[in-house]
Amino acid sequence: MSFFSWFTEVRPIKTTLFGWICFQIGLLFLASSVFLSALFLLISLYLGNYKRLNSFLKDKWNWGWIFISVLMIMGSFGAYSGWLAWVGLANWIPFFWCFWGFQPYLITSHSRKRSAFLLLLGTLPVIFTGIGQIWFGLKGPWEIWNGLIIWFIAPGGQPSGRLSGLFNYANIAGSWLALVWPLALAFLLQRSSNYSKRSLSFLLVLLIAIALILTDSRNAWGAMFLSIPFILGTGTWLWLIPLLCVCVLPVFLSVVPFASLELQMWSRKIVPRGLWSRLADVQFSADRPLETTRLFQWGEAITLLIQRPWFGYGAAAFSVLYPLRQGIWHGHTHNLPLELAVAHGVPVAISLVSIVLVLLIVSFRKCFLIHNNNLFDRAWWSASFTLVFLHASDMPMFDSRINLLGWLFLAGLRCLIISNDSKRFLDV
User: 183 CB contacts (<8 Å, ≥6 apart)?
Assistant: First the structure.
């Protein structure tokens, strides 16, 4: 089979061949080149949706995005952050369109599985450059195609000693790896795989796990652990969840401040020092300013949103206000609902979070209670849940690659709810 013919396979109904090929190429380059990926994905969006524009309002899920967009635009007039408020809309409104526009390419289980494979294939440069920078001293920038793709690889990682690969920060690299981790597990666990395919899948899972650990990202570690029960399905929960709780108990006791000294010392003999020291933040001095902690930032964000709850201060306002109030710069609140409330108001935050949570709940029923035997649907849901988990204590969506990947997952969740042969959805 030729390379080109492989790209023509499993094309969903009512999508053009060229649009389907562009969509796949966009996924393949998403981790390594935002420019190339965005170019191909934009082409696929146009080709996949120009004949179905009249069906946009037929899907009631889109009404919520329209409502949120109107509120965001209204709040940008006279926003405290000025022109930044208008620039910040680019992080949201175009992606509301992507939520609807990517659905034709993700409507079948086969196309979602193909998409998962391409995302994993595109993750290989992240893994190899990341492990290379930590263990072998690789450093960038590397340019190919006359600078069309430039990889900025910090020697030793960014921050130093932490794997960042093609991303500008280790936490962002950890977020990407945590999001594709459930997909890799699904390929490892699929029953139809022969020995060679399963061996390759095992190697990929192992490499992702190593890279995740080397990011030294607590969020990524937690997401990696949390997604396992969802991948294996509800049938394993009776024994798996207690087993995981037993395994994580020593880690928990090694870092919580209320554990007795004897229990903590016993736990720290079992748990590797690198793990409990990172979770306990012992690498920071006792004089670490309170203003640099996330709990303090969340408290400050709540104070700000109480003072201006309806339309907020405008996008990026927290990065302007926080230094003025506390003397220390922070780019965001490290929590998506709080960031939305400060920037665009409480109604926007409640509306957007509600849509995502309802999407997760409704698709959970389809994946785990009705069609629990579809491994890749469970993996897709797990990756989407990981996306929500990561944004509870960080904001990786400010990296355009993570943002695009997140909306792809949410679009796929919407497709999980729709029957594959839904004529209303595919109406042109």
Answer: 116, 117, 119, 120, 376, 379, 380, 383
